[in-house]
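Dataset card, provenance and construction

Sequences and ligand SMILES were collected as paired inputs. For each pair, a complete structure of the chain with the small molecule in place was predicted and serialized as structure tokens. The example below shows a pair involving fe (ii) ion. Curators did not alter the output after generation; any descriptive sentences attached to a record were derived from the structure itself.
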Amino acid sequence: MAEIVYGFGSSHGPLLSTAPEKWDLRAQADMENPAHPFRGEIYNYEELRELRKDENLGDQNQLSVRQERHERNQKQMDALAEKIAEVEPDIVVVVGDDQHEWFQDDIQPSFTVYHGEKVINTALDQEKMKTVQPGLAISMCANHPGEDHAYPVPVGLAHAIIEQAIGDEFDIATSSEQPKDEKGLIGIGHAVGFIYRRILRDKPVPVVPILLNTFFPPNQPTPRRCYRFGQSIGRAIRGWNSDKRVAICASGGISHFVIDEDFDNRILKALLQRDEDAIFNEPNAMFRSGTSETKNWIAVAGILSGTDLEMDLLDYVPCYRTEAGTGNAMAFATWT
Ligand SMILES: [Fe+2]
């Protein structure tokens, strides 16, 4: 039977790939955003700044602090890249979210398993780079290679995951063909693209992309449902008649674009302690915007719950870019 040999989690936000002195590129967008979700409520920038003024978050937005945190991020992503090269799994199952990449408002599946024979991380779109909001072109470079890269998909495992999910009463969506737009094939989304580029270093390791709708109302699955779906994936992998060594990846999170260190500490502690009740009791309303990607980690915790791999939090790095507390809190972890 196949064996789950390793797990890892990595944030994937644009700030990871942005020089500290340029973190302000996204600050203007934060100031203009009228609807920041934070602890179940919605605030405009000024309201958020007022609400959080006693936290003195401006102190954590000094260039010297940013630099120190940027270095910690790079160090941990390098460590994850080195570790996976050392583990050399036959397959990586990546749990990420689709953020209006493959799926739009016309159809938004809660859970999707991709089972085409290959998946393409498309080349950087130079034209599109000129049209995106300030600060986002940098992340496009972090997610896309110079030319199209094709990665094999272990179809047998993808089918085993689908069959197990249906047997476990998860009526998931499946896809065996990348969607297209007027320019052609739409590449795999940022959650998988970033992992390919920054952690797998473009090595064509076979991958099964699993996409969650963490972001878009009204059908985001609850933390409990994400965890249970993960457990189903775990059963599928361990029951798959193969001698392959499989690694699992959680992509994205933790809190952003309003950082909430209390939330992050609670969730990371629950993951470290395998505390299912703490995960299930976290209200769905806490998982909004980028923070919702924490559900990718919860699904991975579900996958790994059936193994004796232990989580090690390599680092937690809150990267503030405004005094109102906007930015992205990064987390990096392994399960060994
Ligand atoms: Fe993301």
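Derived descriptions for this record:
Residues 63-87 form the longest helix (25 residues).
The first strand starts at residue 3 and ends at 10.
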